[in-house]
Amino acid sequence: MSNDVTPSTDSPFRTEPTARDQAPQFVLPLVVRIEKAAPPARTDALETAARAVLVLLSDERSGGDGEWAEAVQDWQDARIRKVVRRARGAEWRRAEALPGITVTGKSAEVRVFPPVPLDGWPKELARLQVSGTDLDDPEPPVAADPAAPVLWLNPDLDMSAGKAMAQAGHGAQLAWWELSDEEKAGWRDAGFPLAVRIADADRWGELTGSGLPLVRDAGFTEIAPGSCTVVADHPALR
For the whole model, what pTM was predicted? Predict the structure, then answer.
């Protein structure tokens, strides 16, 4: 899929049947490290997952003749699915041994892997649990920097941390596709700064009508199909 596809046309997050549904379906695996004694903060995990998606999309192995390019292209030609699983101890070490990229936040570690067929997960990842990703913020997140990209979450949806991590990744990906090559390079070179925050209820309507990239969930898990989950508020897109 070309980078000029916008969420208002052939979005991979629309719920209506499209040609994407006829293509072979792939999924982007993300694994978050959750050790019993030191779980990551929820917001940091969400932000780290979003950055992990951007790091993979911008990696030279994901484009051109790169070793992951075909898998990434096949994934982007179908529905864009991301699944977050959790690991600790030996599980995490086994996940780290597979081809992928580990992205570290303040307290979170997330490893992203090249896309795999929906029914073709590596056994080291397939055995990991999807549930159990309920995380908390020890302290309320500080206000987001208005000069930096912000992924705004729908205040009316109650999502597990794993679901919200995947949605934040969707939002970051839509913003990435909307940027020019120069804007992408600037964001990448800065280390993909971003914030994930829950929008104020009275501002959510304004955000969803702003023309900024908007994720509508396909409804495979947790929430109803067509639910608006994330608005990607990148300064270059305002």
Answer: 0.90
